[in-house]
Write a structure and sequence with these properties.
By secondary structure, this protein is mainly alpha-helical. It has one domain (2-161). Helices cover 81% and strands 0% of the residues. It has 8 helices and no strands. The longest helix has 28 residues, at 2-29. The termini are far apart.
């Protein structure tokens, strides 16, 4: 019975990743694109950032059973996310950001390693400090590189950070 729960957990994570990839793609391409002021455009802008994905992967890895389980859960989330992103772009004829796909594939193994590290060190101060420092650095990077002076995107990014 324990194996069925584990398989179901991975399948549910993969399904959620695929749906999240499609939602991110649709939010990025809809309602005014990157420069629009709508909530959908703000979510699209924020969801392309490092902080959003660090938060999603941290939430998925934090409550896992062990380091290997955390790493595999993050991979089972991110791989279908990339597939959902690309697949939804093909289905709805939206533009595909090749840099996002390349960066996503490049970051699969480092994200799995970070999930393993987080799970192993979550009970120690070093793990909690590392997550906070990494989140703050990602927040600053997102502000300086992509978000700029878009107020709705700034509020969305701060809400994700909190």
């Amino acid at each position: 019975m324990k194996h069925y729960k584990l398989i179901a957990e991975f399948l549910l994570t993969a399904f959620a990743g695929g749906i999240l990839g499609a939602v991110v793609q649709m939010a990025a391409a809809s309602s005014g694109g990157w420069y629009g002021g709508s909530p959908s455009a703000a979510f699209g802008l924020v969801s392309y950032g490092l902080l959003f994905w660090i938060t999603v992967c941290t939430l998925r890895a934090y409550h896992s059973r062990c380091g290997l389980h955390a790493a595999l859960l993050v991979l089972s989330l991110l791989i279908p996310t990339l597939i959902g992103y690309y697949g939804s772009a093909l289905i709805w004829c939206n533009p595909v950001n090749e840099m996002v796909l390349s960066f996503g594939m490049l970051m699969l193994l480092p994200a799995a390693a970070a999930a393993w590290f987080l799970r192993i060190t979550r009970r120690y101060a070093v793990g909690r400090i590392a997550v906070r420092v990494l989140g703050a650095a990602a927040l600053l990077f997102d502000f300086s590189s992509r978000i700029g002076g878009r107020p709705l995107a700034i509020l969305t990014e701060i809400a994700v950070f909190v």
